What we know:
Helix content is about 55%, strand content about 10%. The chain has nine helices and six strands, in the order H-H-E-H-H-H-E-E-H-E-H-H-E-E-H. The strands form two sheets. Strands 2-3-1-4 form a four-stranded antiparallel beta sheet. Strands 5-6 form a two-stranded antiparallel sheet. A hairpin with a 3-residue loop joins strand 5 (about 225) and strand 6 (about 230). Helix 4 packs across helix 6. The two termini are about 40 Å apart.
Amino acid sequence: MEETISLRELADTLKKRLKLIVLITFTAALISGLISYFVLTPIYQTSTQLLVNQAKSEQQLYNPAEVQTNLQLINTYNVIIKSPAILDKVAQNLDLDMTAAGLNEKITVQSEKDSQVVNVAVRDEDPTIAADIANETARVFQSEIVKIMNVDNVSILAQAEAKEGAAPVKPKPLLNIAIALVVGLMTGVGLAFLLEYMDNTIKSEQDVEKLLGLPVLGSVTVIDVQNKGKSTVPATQKATVRGETIGS
């Protein structure tokens, strides 16, 4: 019984503060949409692929040991690609007003497990600049790795391209709006319960019973009077007040 009453009180609180909850929810979604579409700068991503594999002649056969060696080198290559030894030359070749640390934040290097392909992805506000950085990073790395590691087993598998009409990778307005809706709803519900908890005024007979722990035996009804003594209460109610029995 106690659980039923508690659930009813929760439902009454939500119903009572429904306008507040809806207002907060849609305000959060509106603000998120405005920021996503008009404030945040779109970021585009392009990528190039490198193949770590020793060049072979027609007479050479597949060598599993060599493949395993290439796979072990990939983790080292992932670090070298983002090192100042490579990125400083990329910034210099492209005449970028950017340090190696700044380029490092734009570049992501990853490879699938047991794969000899390394993916170099670059994010920038300009998709053309992102493609240029990706391609130049791959080219510089292919050239410098021969001097750094004394090996020549890197080839460029695919060039990065700046496609027209490409969608930005971030922000994602619809996702941001959906998150804002959920956060706004949670905030509105939380605020509704907080206001209800802080509201200690007595508004009904049930509030009196809950506060005093005593049953309510009766209540006094407020009678509105208009035009000098004329009551708006129906005749039946007037008769009850006077203690008389008169039909309506």
